[in-house]
Design goal:
This protein has ten helices and two strands. By secondary structure, the protein is an all-alpha fold. Strands 1-2 form a two-stranded antiparallel ribbon.
Amino acid sequence: MTALTAPLIPTLPAGRSLRLGLRRIPLELKMYFRAGDQVFFTFLFPTLIYALFATVFSDQELPDGVSMATYYLPGLIAGAILLSGVQNLAGDIAVEKSDGTLKRLGGSPLSPVSYFIGKLGQVVVTSLLQLALLVGVAVLGFDAALPDTAEGWAIVAWVYVLGIAACSFAGIALSALPRSGKTASAVIIPIVLVLQFISGVYLQFSALPEWLQSVAGFFPVRWMAQGLRGAFLPESYAAAEQSGAWDLPLVAIMLAVWIVVGLVLARLTFRWIHKDK
């Protein structure tokens, strides 16, 4: 059977596509929270890891009075965005492609636009809830410090918006890699874990070899973590970055580049059914 691609699906009026997509968001949320393993590995996992790190290193304090609980928070926020966008979407779409869900949707009046509005809406809602839980635990449980200026919160906001968009499109593109729903987790989770380890989520980025820092620079999570550190940490900590500065304009540029790259890859690779069927 020839793979049915997005352009062959009948085009719906824009208003109807939007309405159908918005109606799918509650359905996508319901399916998301019904999957216990998905909730653990994409929703609760960053908060659990953060609580572990903050507890283990609770007796350590960094220069300028920065606690380890505060230091680890921006990296774990970046990791949470990565999980919500890449791991969540890549695994979910790969499974739906394998079990025939996408094939059935491809034969329905539902357009790809409506389908992805539902998916992206679910990602935005769950990621915001996830970050609210993570930050709440950090502040209430470990007395982590949050940005104390409007500029700091503005940085958090635009890093989140650009980061969740970049990771979502990358997740859609990555969903084409697993050959079946059964292998989706085995393919996607190691990629996501490696990216977190080399991008300053679990380890101090400045402690990594310079060549590994350069490799991490090809991927969005490194830039999300760097931008968020610029919002959460004192200016003196910028000296530990690879360039010796927060480089916030470069952070925005790299995340914007990844939005474009992810969108192009998603457009080229998305199929309602698997390409070899």
